[in-house]
Amino acid sequence: MIDNPRFPHTCRITRVGENDPLSSEEEVVTVYEGECRAYEKNTTSDRGDVISSFRGLAVPVDRKGWMERGIVPLEDDYVVVDRGGYEESGKIIDVNPANFGGTHIVWRYGRN
Length: 112
Prior knowledge:
The chain is 6% helix and 52% strand.
């Protein structure tokens, strides 16, 4: 039997919080840490050239779940995804509710 979990990856979404003007350290707030499904979302031209490469992220937390947590993912939050053997990271560019419950996040992959 093939093992095909709905959320096979793990991720962490963080945000730089309000800083104390007298401190040199940035406060980092964890928005979400847990299971997810990560995938590529490429946009191409009519010639087949890749114009841009984005990443999608499905998180099993719906609107009610975010409200209960008291914090929701926002644009410019930072994402780190463990895809089982390697990590990808970048910034969130869009957050939407998913059609089967949960949340769909589009983020820009930060290539070196």
